[in-house]
Specification:
Blueprint: H1 3-33, H2 40-62, H3 64-71, H4 89-124, H5 140-161, H6 163-177
Helix pairs in contact: 1-2, 1-3, 1-4, 1-5, 4-5, 4-6
Length: 178
């Protein structure tokens, strides 16, 4: 594998991670803030930021060679090829997808378990939640955050459980663009 191929894969996987963070974390979290006050400026800021992130995703996906040239990522190495043993493009994509899915699960599992604990305690406890716990699950947006963390766990699990198919899709997508 050449250095250029390696950096192309890394940039495109970063773009995929950026898209997943935008769709499953940034947009839902900021939409929950609109429940406080629905006005035009927060909506425009959220839409503008989301559109900027999606444009950045598309740019990194389509113009990864331009990014490599501008940043000169493939310069300064002693050898033209990167020897990763028997690892090919498919295996590198699988490793990166393991990291992406793992980070999604590790980032959102504590929050999801905390909301599960509060929800369970609120339902079964005769006294309800203590004054220290009550603000953690008192409003609509708290339930929304619980839902968002659950969706992130589900997406992370789906990435890890469909690792082979997703990696083949991404590698074939790269082959079609050449």
């Amino acid at each position: 594998m050449t250095k250029r191929d390696f950096f192309r894969i890394i940039i495109r996987l970063f773009a995929l991670y950026l898209l997943l963070l935008t769709i499953f974390n940034y947009i839902p979290t900021n939409v929950s803030y609109l429940t406080f006050e629905l006005s035009i400026w927060p909506v425009l800021i959220i839409l503008g930021s989301a559109i900027l992130m999606i444009v950045l995703f598309l740019f990194l996906l389509q113009k990864s060679d331009t990014v490599i040239d501008v940043l000169k990522l493939d310069k300064g190495f002693d050898d033209e090829r990167i020897e990763l043993g028997n690892l090919g493009s498919l295996e590198i994509v699988k490793i990166a997808l393991i990291f992406i899915g793992g980070f999604m699960i590790l980032d959102h599992l504590p929050e999801f378990l905390h909301y599960c604990y509060l929800g369970f305690k609120k339902e079964i406890s005769a006294t309800g939640l203590s004054p220290f716990e009550a603000p953690g699950l008192a409003e609509f947006w708290d339930y929304f955050r619980w839902f968002v963390s659950g969706v992130n766990l589900l997406v992370g699990y789906l990435i890890l459980s469909n690792l082979g198919r997703l990696a083949r899709f991404l590698v074939n997508l790269r082959a079609k663009q050449k």
